[in-house]
Structures are given as C-alpha cells and as structure tokens.
Amino acid sequence: MIPAVRALARAAMAARPVPLADVQARAELLARFDRRYLVPVEVFAAFAAELTDRRRPGGPFAALCINGRRWFRYRSLHYDTPDLRSFHDHRQGLPLRYTIRERHYEDIGERQFEVKLTGRRGETVKHRRPLLPGDPALGAAPRGFLTAVLDRAYGLAAPTDLDGALETAYTRATFVADGRRITCDAALRCRDPESGRTVRADGGLVLVEIRTAGRPTGTDRLTDADPLTDADRLLHGHGVRAAAFTRYCGGLSALRPDLAADHWRQAVRTAFPTAV
C-alpha cells in the first residue's frame, strides 16, 4: 500500500465514525474558504492523531463513514475549452473563474456534475447536479444547469466547446467537526486524455484541505497572514505552510510544464517530483 494511503487509513480508523447525513448537517460547506497543504506522511500522522484525540479541547474531529468504509476512491474528469480558458483564468487569478467537472464516487457508485465558482470574497462556491447511470455528463440537462449557474452567478454565457481536459483519481478520507471539514487525499494520479500521458503524485505526501464556512477578514483570498484555524496552527507548528495547489491546475501543469505559473510552480514540483 502507498505510504500516504496507509496513513489515511490508520487516521480514519482511529477516529470516531460519523455518517454522511451528520457530515452534511454539521459541515456540508458548499460555500467555504479553504487552505491547501502538501503534507509529508510522517507529519500527517502526527497531525491526524492530534485532530482526532478524544482529549482535544473542543472535542475531536470524526471521520466520515459510509457503509462501513472510512476512505474512498474518487475519479473526476475536468472539462475545459480547447484553449483551456478555465485553466488560464485560474492561472491569472481572475476574480470570476470556475471549474467544471464530472465526479465519480467509485465506492458508492454515485456521479455528480459539478461547477465550482470563486466568489467575490475569494470563497469557493460549489453547485452540483446528480447524474443517473448512463447520463452523459455534457448532455442537455447538465449543460442547461451549467448555463443557469454561470448566468446567475457571473452573468456569463456558458462555453459550448467543452471537452475532457484532465482525469484525476485519488483516495480520500474526510474529517469533520461543527462548521469545519478537512479532506485528506493520497495517491493522486492525473491523466491527459489528449496525449494519454499520466503522472503520479509523491506517494509520501497527503494533500490536506482545511475548509471553513467563513473567515473574519475581508481580503480577496486566504494567506498565511489571515487568522488561522486550530488545524492550520497544528500544521504550521510542524513547519508546513499553505501551498498554491489544486488538482486540476497542478495536474495539468505537471503534464504540460509549459503551462505552469510561477506562483504555483514550487507546489507542482513538490507534488510531482518525477514529472517536472
């Protein structure tokens, strides 16, 4: 087993289990602020133990559990235009940007068509629509949903020339407390549908994303200067700082190094050391 996946499994099994309905009630966070960290597996093990310690002030984080499982396989296909409009909007940090993807929850057989927006205060806002078995992700209904979301949120027309730009797969464990959710991803694999080339992330790293419902500052995006959650402080105490990294932009940059932007180049090198 890949070291990072083994660490996820151990952390999830050590935590108190919580069902999906409780996670959605306590911390669904379809609109949220987040920070991402690329965490060495040894640090992750200590971090997770501190989070889930039953003696933790304020109570421990619990682990999402569905049908007895506490870690899950995810697959996503990210869509973009031929000129990678969505990718370059993120690369330039444009205020009105979005990501379009089809997500497959492999262990529970669920598919979702999702549109992730960057809000006017820098928050992430996710809109999603279930896909039934056999439904094409870019069929009439999902395209109508995309059109409505972009028009309502940004006043933008939806792109009509979408195609698969990046496939991602990884294993995830999710830890939750009231109003807070921490997703932990390992064994990230990215594939370029056009070339067929694949890159794999460092098996000794866990991508940790700390999500909260809000933050007390009015700046455009979270930085290390913003007030920290207790989970952020734990990672900072281990010498780990937030990384400019997303699975879509990071994976595509690793597969096509000419696309990498300066502000996330180091994070891409850390996540995919054999690719860059």
From TrEMBL:
The residues covered by the VTC domain are 68-255
Top-level lineage group: Bacteria
Q: Which Pfam families match?
A: VTC
Q: Which InterPro entries match?
A: VTC_domain
Give the protein name, as stated in the record: VTC domain-containing protein
UniProt organism field: Streptomyces mooreae
